[in-house]
Amino acid sequence: MIVIDASAAASWVLPHEDGIDLNRLIEASNDFFAPFLFWAEIRNVILVSERRGLILPEAASRAMSAIERLDVTFDITPSSHDVYNFSKQYGLSIYDSLYIELAHRKHAHLCTLDRKMRAAAEHEGIILIN
Fold it and tell me: Model's pTM, two decimal places?
């Protein structure tokens, strides 16, 4: 099981982003999870990239299709207490703590490029995907 955030997904679908190649993960696992927030976050990243002229509309469309093919399962049952505490303890936004809480609760690996989230995950014993 892999919890994926928008930074990792964007690095996979956008040509101007460097990061994690999800192709090998897709071959190894089809169990991608994310807080429901991911749905809006990744679409906003793609939209902003198109608006800024970093990608053409056709590339945005391909990126959206690729994200849909990930078939991410969205979680809507976070522990408010744990999310809040992770935010306080690690100086994360509530948004970022949703990913940490989900990976922690599901005993999942975490796929992110965010430095602070990676540090929090390591401290919590969550396995990181590189």
Answer: 0.91
